[in-house]
Every structure is written in structure tokens, then in C-alpha cells.
Amino acid sequence: MITLDFIINALSLGSTYALLALGMVIVYGILNLVNFAYGELIMITGYSLFVLALTPVLPWIVMAVLAVGVAVLTSYLTERVAFRPVRESSPTAMLITSFAVSALLQNAALLIISPRARGVPLPQAFSTSVAVLGQDIPIRNILAIVTSVALLLLLVLLLRKTVLGIALRAASDNFRMTRLLGVPANLVISAAFAISGLLAGVVALFWVGRTASVTPTIGSAPLLVAFVATVIGGMRSLAGAVLGGYIYGIVFSLIGVLLPPAMMEFREAFMFVVVILILVFRPEGLIRSAYSSKRVG
Amino acid sequence: MSILTVRDVSVRYGAISAVRGVSLSVEEGELVALIGVNGAGKTTTLSTIAGALRPFQGTITFQEEQIQGRSPEYITRKGIALVPEGRDILSSLSVAENLRLGAFVRNSRIEFQKDMEEMIGLFPILGERLHQAGGTLSGGEQQQLAIARALMSHPRLLMLDEPSLGLAPVLVDQIFQLIGRLRQRGVTILLVEQNVERTLDIVDRAYLLHTGEIEAQGTPEHIRSFVDVEGVYLGDHGRRGQQQ
Question: Domain total for chain B?
Fold first, then answer.
């Protein structure tokens, strides 16, 4: 049944998925790289919270900001150390590099911390609800929506109003021409990875917030979500990524309430049927990159 | 003194040699053309000067600094602007944003506003389309935007690659008039064109490229007489060309 609780829950899921997809597309648009190490940024953020909480002197919000900062830094460093040296090589080399970075980070977590789940601190607000129109709405869901929308608006401002933002959009439109206008390749690519890290870091706060724990493989599920959402929305469109994320979140929630309980274990299978149907009718995703065809005459 | 000197430059695509031992120079304030049929190596030469391709051998000196093999962004910062073949308008960006990025190498916001107004004076149609996406402009409007965008960087050398390609005859006239006006303003231009007849009417000097090598160079009169004597085919727009 469609209730306020359901709507808030679906929008909350959609919002986090939209951020996830955007973080993946912002790199893909410029480098044509599906970054398979993207999910590991969620893991890194989770472990950063875990480590910061070992000496519980900081307020949660400070730990959260620091953990997101670690995700930004990690994302930037993976570009600087792993992707930049192979950037001029084939796209396959980049793809394999992303698998390598992913495996390296996951195994580092296994070796250094533990294969078992570790608890992460959560603020009180994450486990409380507020009564709205007679229904209990988890504050975590409201926070996810508000944070995501605020971050999306900030990103829109950055991309539309600043020269760096315009350069980022230009680079995903035509990277070669953007460089010919004097925009340094390293600047836009580093910025794209940093933004990607920021988005993954913020999503991670809500992702680990569901279970209050982190494992070395926690990044696999969000990676898949990001990938599928971008495929739905259109791999070359930032707006498409956001749309794809919301569609994924909302459809997934709908399937959750429409399916009889006995079939709930097939929820993801039904989700992928929807994805396949979308791709049958819109193989290039719902939003193609704007004005990609050239006019002559 | 030459602002640009290309010496003995060769460029390869894998095993295929696209340009072989090309040497050319452009003086400050000159309008110089590179002419030749499709596949002669004109675009390859411009792309190499702009840093989009690396030469296999040879040197490219711009304002007394060797720039061969440097990144496109470095070369643009040095003062070379390329208007590429096909225009390469950033199609999802507005006209104003395209112009803003054209001025990326210059940081002053005040100067940017002044230059925008100047470009709108030079290309009034762009003023009417400032907030329209670049990809929605017509071919002629896109060409004007591509040239305006290049001029926004205040280049010491403007390289135009086939600016009249794919345009209606009336727009071709406009583009050639514009190149003439830019020249009068003292802009140094290296022009690649297939429309040889029109090009030789406006340039100071020209180089004739054929299968990756310079075949002739000199004044427009010299190139014309060479073409006549040798019966060189210069494409559909070539002057009195004879098909080989």
C-alpha cells in the first residue's frame, strides 16, 4: 500500500542511489571508465568511521565529515597513483586497473582490519522516528533525502556557475576540445574523482547506517546499484544518472510492496526484468547526452 | 620574425605516415594557408602544432620555444588557438559557456565581460543565442561560435581548419569576409582550406600539401601558376584543377 512512510522510504532510497550513480557517471563521462573501485569508497568511509570511533572523543558529525574526507582523498589518490599512469593506454587497461584497485583495497581491509563485520558509530537520530500524519517516519530517511537534494543542488551550482564546473561538463561533452581550449586534463579528471569520492562518502554514511556495520565487501552492492542506475539513465548524462538512481530506488521499493511475501526473495530478479524492459525500449538509457548529433549546414 | 616555425615534421598513425618532413613558417600578422586535397595531411599538421598529435620527428617552434609533443592545454596557454574541422562546439553547453571556456586561459572576469561584448559586436547572432545550447545552432552559427571561442583566448596565432566546410555558399562568403576582417585587425592566421580559389584571393602566402609533403610554397600567384603548370587536382573547389 502506498503510504507516506512508503513514499519517504522510496525517495530516500532513490536519493542515495541518485548520488551513487552521479558519482560513477561524472568519472565515466570524462574518462569512459567504469570505475569498479567506486564501491570501495563506501567501504573506506565505513572503516574510517570505525577507526575514528576507537577513540570516541569526536562528535559524530565531525567523524562523518572526516570519513567523507577520507573517501575524497582516496578517490583522488586512486586517480593520481593508479589511473593517471595508464590513462594514455587502452580503455581495457583502465578497466583492469580499476579491478586491481578494487581488489587491493578490499584485501587491504581484510588483512589490516578483519573479514568480519565491524560496528560503526551512528548518531541517535539514525535510530529514531518522528510521527508525521499519524505514521512513524525514520529520521534517517528524511535526512537521506534532505542531504541528497542539498548535495545535488550544490553540484548543480558548481557545474553551472563556476568555471571549473563548466569545464567538467565540457570535458564530458568533448574532452579533446576542452583540452584544446586550455583546460588542463589533470585538473578536470582530479576534480571529477574528488567529486565522485564526495558523493560515495556521503552515500556511505547512509549505507552503513542501515546495518551500523562495515565489511570488506560492503562496496559490491552499491557498485552494482550505481552501474545499473547509470545504465537506466544513460551513461553519458549527469541528469540521466540522477533520474536512473531515483527510478531504481522507487521501482525497487514498489516491487517490495507489490510482491507477495513468498516471492520477496526474487525482488532483485523482478528489478532486473524492469531494467531489461527499459533497455529494450531505450538501449542508450533514458537520457542521451544532449545534442550529441552534429548539425551540418 | 617568424612567430611559428615548423621544421621537418613527420607524423605517423601507427605504421602509416600522414605527414612527411613538413616545414613551414608564419610571420607575425600574416595570413598563411595550407591547401591540398582530402588526405593531404593538412588537418594532421594543424593538430600536431596544437598538441593534439605528437610528431614522430621534427621541431615546432612558437615564439622561440620548442613546443612539439607538449600538451594541448600548454600550447593553448602559449597563445595558439585551433578552430578544428567540424567545429567541435561543446554542444550541451550554452553559447555563453562555450565563450567562457574559450577564455579559460585568461583569468580576469572583467576582461571576459569586455571580450564577450566585443565578440557579440563581431558576431551579432551569438548575442541573440547566448543562452541557447551550442548543439542547437545552425552550421554557420556554430562556425562563428567556434571562431569567437578561439578569439576569446586572445591567441597570438589562430589556426582555422576548413572553416567553410559544409556551409551554404552565402555562409562561405561570410566566413571568408570574416577571415579578411580578422586579418585587418592584425590577427595572425594559419588557414587550412579546400576552397583553394577563395583562399588564394585573401592570403599572403600559401603552402601546397600533397600526400603528406609540401609540394609548393610562396605567394598566391606562385601557387596559382604552379597549379596551372603541373595540372594539380585540388578537389571540387580547386582552381582550374584537372582530375588525375
Answer: 1
Number of domains into which chain A is organized: 1
Cβ contact B101–A183 (<8 Å): yes
Residue B244 inside a domain? The answer is no
Query: Alpha-carbon distance B233 to B170, whole Å?
Result: 25
| Pairs of residues, one from chain A and one from chain B, whose beta carbons lie less than 8 Å apart | 96
With respect to residue A296, please indicate whether it lies within any of the assigned structural domains.
no
The CATH number of the domain where A205 resides is what? Answer: 1.10.3470
> Does residue B237 belong to any structural domain of this protein?
no
The whole-angstrom distance between A268's CA and the closest CA on chain B is 35
pLDDT along chain B (244 residues), means of 10: 94 91 95 91 95 95 95 95 92 94 86 90 92 93 94 94 88 89 91 89 94 94 85 59 42
Three-class SS of A16-44: HHHHHHHHHHHHHHHHCCCCCCHHHHHHH
Would you call B143 an interface residue with chain A, using a CB distance cutoff of 8 Å? Answer: no
Q: Locate the chain B residue with the closest alpha carbon to A295.
A: B139
A109 inside domain: yes
Tell me: the pLDDT tens digits for B175-209?
A: 899 899 888 888 999 999 888 888 999 999 999 99
B168 shares contact with chain A (CB less than 8 Å) = yes
Amino acid A184 reads P
Partner residue opposite B102 with nearest CB, options A174, A181, A291: A181
CB contact under 8 A, A163 and B72: no
Among A182, A185, A290, select the one facing B105 at the smallest CB separation: A182
Domain that holds residue A91: 4-281
**Residue A291 belongs to some domain of the structure:** no
CATH number where B186 lies: 3.40.50.300
Asked, for residue A269, whether it belongs to a domain, the answer is: yes
Residues 6+ positions from B45 with CB-CB distance below 8 Å? B6, B9, B11, B19, B22, B24, B34, B192, B209
Range of the domain at B210: 2-230
B171 part of a folded domain = yes
Q: Grid coordinates representing A184?
A: 588542463
What order do you get walking across the sheet with B189-193 strand by strand?
Answer: B80-83, B157-161, B189-193, B31-35, B205-210, B213-218
Q: What's the one-letter identity of residue A119?
A: G
CB-based contact B88 A177, cutoff 8 Å: yes
The predicted model scores a pTM of: 0.87
C-alpha cell belonging to residue A97 = 586497473
Cα angle, residue A237 at apex, residues A233 and A240 outer, rounded to 5°: 30
Pairing of strands B205-210, B31-35: parallel
Helix%, strand%, coil% for chain B, nearest 5: 40, 25, 35
Does the CB of B135 have a partner CB in chain A at under 8 Å? yes
Whether residue B225 is contained in a domain is answered as: yes
